[in-house]
């Protein structure tokens, strides 16, 4: 016997789940082609983005749940240069 598991999901650009709607460890998926992502709720109630790295000339601008995850990555392509940046919880830091 087989069955299909459906995670909470959205295809709205930049949308993140509200951690209050998730159980600890539950996965939520954004299937939008421009801003895909997988998210989970931690034991402390925080929302964490599991991946992938955002790519573009502007920083990720999430909707619904607007906090970025510490350690979240963004490949900044501004001006034709690629700079990997990591969210510190306060600001985007460039990885050298």
Pick out its properties:
mainly beta; four-stranded mixed sheet; 96 residues; single chain
Please, could you describe this protein's structure?
It is a single chain. It is built from no helices and ten strands. With 96 residues, the protein is mainly beta. Strands 1-3-4-5 form a four-stranded mixed sheet, with no helix packed on it. A four-stranded mixed sheet has the order 6-8-9-10, with no helix packed on it. Strands 2-7 form a two-stranded parallel ribbon. A hairpin with a 4-residue loop joins β9 and β10. The chain is globular. The model has no long low-confidence stretch (mean pLDDT 94).
Q: How far is the N terminus from the C terminus? A: 51 Å
Percent of residues in helices:
under 10%
- Can you tell me the residue ranges where pLDDT is under 50 for at least 5 consecutive residues? none
**What amount of the residues lies in strands?**
35-45%
* Average pLDDT metric: 94
What is the makeup of the main sheet? 4 strands, mixed
Overall geometry comes to globular
Output the radius of gyration: 14 Å
Count of DSSP strands: 10
Order of helices and strands: EEEEEEEEEE
Structural class: mainly beta
DSSP helical segment count:
0
Strand order of the largest sheet: 1-3-4-5
């Amino acid at each position: 016997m087989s069955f299909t598991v459906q995670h909470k999901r959205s295809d709205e650009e930049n949308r993140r789940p509200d951690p209050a709607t998730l159980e600890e460890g539950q996965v939520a998926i954004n299937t939008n082609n421009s801003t895909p992502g997988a998210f989970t709720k931690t034991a402390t109630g925080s929302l964490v983005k599991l991946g992938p790295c955002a790519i573009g000339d502007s920083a990720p601008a999430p909707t619904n749940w607007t906090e970025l995850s510490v350690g979240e990555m963004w490949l900044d392509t501004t001006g034709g240069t690629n700079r990997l940046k990591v969210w510190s919880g306060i600001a985007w830091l460039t990885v050298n």
